[in-house]
Amino acid sequence: MGGKYHHGDLRAELVRVSLDLIAEQGLDGFSVAQVAKRAQVSPGAPYRHFATREALLAEVALNIVCQLTERVAAAIAEHDAPADALAAAAGAYTRYLIERRAGLNVIYADGLQGPDYAELHEAARGLTDQFLMLSLTVAPDPPTGLELLEQLFTQAHGYGTFQLDGIFVKQGYSVDQVVAKSTEAARIAIAGRILG
User: How far, rounded to the nearest angstrom, does the alpha carbon of residue 104 sit from its chain's CA centroid?
Assistant: First the structure.
């Protein structure tokens, strides 16, 4: 949590505080009022930089998609085989979701559709394309590649959500174990689609 805000780049501070708030409380805990309170500015101050709650959330989502894209790209770069790279990308997504409580749930949050958020949409396509290109590479045909993409995002997000919701915590799983499980589940899904 940030200390008292003292002049400077309030816009960036509001985004940083928003990221921290979502990491602690999830998307349901996000509000402009709570962000202002944590940034120790007046309730109206955020609206001088972001016209609406959705505008602030879109900037936060853009930061998330950029961070996720970097994480996924780094995971992919560690592997030569496309199937291994794709499984590692799924694991990287799960780890990020657990650490930040943010992933596709924030990137595609209600209110962030439409032309006002074109930069966010373009960045989200870049993230999705990393998965899509590998899915199409390993799959026998495009429809199977698209199904694989959907399955991997669903599994990776689900593993992270189970950890965040305490289901895996009750089983004594560490974050590293959950990421390993997500990665292995992705390998299994990929192999199933390759073998058809």
Answer: 5
Q: Return the closest-CA partner of residue 26 out of 175, 165, 135.
A: 165
For residue range 76-93, list pLDDT tens digits in order: 999 999 999 999 999 999
Kind plus residue range of the DSSP H or E element containing 14: helix 10-25
Q: Are 130 and 71 in contact (CB under 8 A)?
A: no
Q: How far apart are CA 30 and CA 50, in angstroms?
A: 15
Both tokens assigned to 144: 């199977």
The mean pLDDT value for 147-174 works out to: 96
Nearest-5° Cα angle at 153, 14 to 135: 125
Confidence (pLDDT) at 193: 85
Identify whether the C-beta of residue 120 lies closer than 8 Å to the C-beta of residue 112.
Answer: yes
